[in-house]
Amino acid sequence: MDAIILQVLNGLDKGSAYALIALGLTLIFGTLGVVNFAHGALFMLGAFCAVTLNVILRASFTTIDETRTDFLGNPLKVETPYVEYWFGPEVGGSIIEWSVPLAILFAIPVMALVGIAMERGLVKHFYKRPHADQILVTFGLAIVLQEIIKAFYGANPIPTPAPDAFSGSFDFGALVGFDAGSIIYPYWRLVYFGFAAAVIAGVFAFLQFTTFGMVVRAGMADRETVGLLGIDIDRRFTFMFALAAIVAGLAGVMYAPINAPNYHMGMDFLVLSFVVVVVGGMGSLPGAVLAGFLLGILESFASMAAVVTLLPGINQVIIYLVAIVILLTRPRGLMGRKGVME
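Structure tokens predicted for Branched-chain amino acid ABC transporter permease:
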């Protein structure tokens, strides 16, 4: 039972990332009808927002400490971060330590601007083009963004630590009545799951309970009629593209301590996220979230040693096998509308 609970926790962790990225993909497809293959790059950009803020906060200047010497007897050179100099060692050190959560505030405007620029500068010219054209141009954009990140940050992963308060592990087994130490799980992965749940709930609440969200949902169902009512639906859809970029970016920010950001991490998640969208149903927001968590848990169980020993490599293909079965038996996906992408 403890092994099952551990795999469920691992699946929720993976599923959180899949669900957040798939949610953004579905927002874009549901509102604009665009298949955005650059969405994984937005996840990557979010992770590098965390890296960038961490680098900025650690920027320092050199001073000479006459009271201390190196092994040769020379006065010791000390690197002092500017934030520690401005706010003091304790406050400045805390700001540096909490750089990843603070990067959320940094990433929101950055990702919104990136989303608006992407939609207004490129994507809007492909609304009425075939999906194949949309895939090619957005995939090309993803490669460009990937190479820009590689040129500025290099090809190696850049570790971005979580705050010390969440750097340890939580004894989940003792909490649910098992022996102490039977289920040990990192704090930050639990934080990531909670953060993903809050973001998903916020997006659904925005679409369900605000006038803006209701208009967007009406536009998703019948864009032409909403336009005839005198509503500038294009501006609202641009906002939704920006919102989707923010969701993907925030997913990347909080994932940075789990997997050190690198220039190709967007591509690693992109294909899996599209599989999640297809399984959940193209254009279905609840389907994207449900499929994200279900496939994350399924992949986690397929990665167990006993399963891999019995079926070598199954953990690498299990999601695609599920997608094949879904496409053959229910082309619209688990919760997709009839006729959409069938």
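The mean pLDDT is 84.
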